[in-house]
Amino acid sequence: MRSRLVRQIEDRLMGWVFRAAGMMAVTVLLGIFAMLVYNGASAFRTIPWVEFFSGAEWRPSAYGRPSYGIGAMVVSTWLVTSGAMMLSIPLGIGAAAYLSEVASPGVRSLLKSGVELLAGVPSVVVGFLGIVWVGPWLARVTGQSNGLNALNGSILLAVMSLPTLISVAEDAIRSVPRHFKEAAYALGADRWTTLLRVTLPAALPGLVAAVILGTGRAVGETMTVLMATGNAAALPGGFFDSVRTMAATIAIELGEAPYGTPHYHGLFAVGGVLFLMTLSFNLLAERIAARFRYRA
Amino acid sequence: MLATSAVCCREHTYRQLTIKGSDTEVNLVVALAEAYMERDSQVSISVTGGGSGAGIAALINGKTDIANASRAMDPAELALASARGVRPVPLILALDAIAVVVQADLAVDSLTLAQLSGLYRGTVRNWRSVGGPDLPVSLYGRQSNSGTFAYFRDSVIRGEYAPSLKQLNGSAQLVEALRKDRAGVGYVGAGYVRQADGTVRQGVKVLKIIVLEGRPAEATLSPEAVYGGAYPLVRPLYQYVDGPPKGALLAFLRFCQGEEGRRLITESGYFPVPAAAEDWSPPPTTWVDDAK
Fold first, then answer.
1. Are A229 and A4 in contact (CB under 8 A)?
2. What is the ipTM of this complex?
3. Distances (CA, A) of A259 to A66, A83, A253, A254, A266
4. Of B157, B159, B182, which has the smallest distance from its Cβ to A145's Cβ?
5. Which residue of A has its CA nearest to B136?
6. What does the buried/exposed string (b/e) look like for A27-66 if buried means 16 or more CB atoms within 10 Å of the residue's CB?
7. B51–A63 C-beta distance less than 8 A
8. Residues of B with CB below 8 A from A139's CB?
């Protein structure tokens, strides 16, 4: 038997270990942010603020004067992401509702393992399917000459964000207390009405969280969109235009941008903007989720 | 560490050779190095890509024996080299012709340089304007850190690329995309579309280039047109070394220009440097101004 003192020391020590582990995430996050700000801010010594934020053209290796405007790639990023969400939100929440409310236990376990396997498909493989399969199919169906466009990226990103969306949404729906549903049935509501009017509204905070996590997965995804969307730097006019997202631009160019040049710092500034975008989106969505939670 | 080992080896015979640089050249040089190592088991050669700029930087820092480069060193690089006591010697490994590629079914067989420039500037947006079908043009190119991207910008477009240019991450992917796009046009090093027997890969077509409008001669991508100066999009692929080569380095460079080396260059789709000066007339330099 160990003495009381040893146990106390042990407790104290483990307390510190776990506190350090908890702080680690915040420290790394702050470190990344500081590094992005430090490198990105240097960009504005040579690139005017107005050009960077309001210019549409990103042309670091120009014939004449290079231009560094992030307009087109911000629009492209949101175009691809919003397209992906339009496809994956109804599909994902529908699938989650089916899994938790309708499917028999056998079907459910089979489908759940399928969804989990889908999460394990590497993004390069998804991008490859986009080139050889989704692209040509889209070109045929839509009458375009090629399928390397924003819609292709949206479809692939929808597939990639589905596993996250389905798992989190399913958890949310299953955690709705059983007596909510029983009360609805007792009032004479059928299963469809109960699902639509009672279960889903009660699960709303969790569903919002599921959508946020799915969007987060889509907005920063690099490899798939880089391979499938054609990477044209132009301001897109619609889903049939070829687009280049912020993440793809950084991935393509950072490896070869000479260290310390405006191009190099400019890419860090793009990374900083992408980081702020996802961060503010997450914070906002957390607010929304919290508000719904109090009302429920 | 690396600098001292380079000094030690320069006085004796080379045993370990390091080659770094251009991605256009990397597959060809790997083939040459493998063939050479089979002949001479005393020498081991390591070849890496990274781009022309990376190879030249490594040569200046004394970290490579040969820098592969698909462009000449620029004045800033030459100044830096002489400041570090490095004396870069350019050797031409082979000639590379840039092929302008479309899908095999497209009803266009040739373009003038002016039309090509117009297509890539975005001023010509429909194939109808250059005698083809009524289809909006879909432009393909390499990503902006590629030497081929820069060559095409400076020598053909002589202006800015249209923003609608789709930038693909490699020459092989570009050829695949063009096979599927009935309105696409793109450019790659000849090695990616020309096979060893001189035929073109299935599904794509290499356009003939008309240097001057109204001039009857169309330049097909063929050895005769490349060596005769009729095909305009030709550039040398360099190997830079530090000072006059000696020992195993010299032996390897000789091997590259020897019978087997030249055979490997041809098989990879590139064009060996002619043995005599009169066998090669470079493309006229005046055509570029007419292309505007």
1. no
2. 0.76
3. 17, 35, 12, 9, 11
4. B182
5. A145
6. eeeeeeeeebeebbebbeeebeeeebeebbbbbbbeeeeb
7. no
8. 180-181
Query: pLDDT tens-digit profile of A3-55?
Result: 888 999 999 999 999 999 989 988 998 999 899 999 999 889 888 888 999 88
The parts of chain B modelled with pLDDT lower than 50 are: 1-12, 285-292
Return the closest-CA partner of residue A282 out of A221, A208, A222, A231.
A208
What was the pLDDT predicted at B282? 64
Interface residue ranges in chain A relative to chain B, Cβ cutoff 8 Å? 57, 59-64, 72, 131, 135-136, 139, 145-146, 148, 226-227, 230-235, 241-242, 244, 252-253, 255-258
Of residues A209, A178, A192, A184, the one with CA closest to residue A286: A209
Contact B183 A146 (CB under 8 A): yes
pTM for this structure?
A: 0.78
Is the CB of B180 less than 8 angstroms away from the CB of A136? yes
- Rg (alpha carbons) of chain B, rounded to whole number: 20
**Which two structure tokens, joined as six digits, stand for A66?**
């290079």
Q: Which residues of A touch B157 (CB under 8 A)?
A: 63
Is the alpha carbon torsion for A44, A49, A51, A52 positive or negative?
Answer: positive
- With a cut of 70, list the residues of chain A below it in pLDDT: 1-2, 255-256, 258, 288-289, 291-296
pLDDT, tens digit, 9 for 90 and up, residues A101-118: 889 999 999 999 999 899
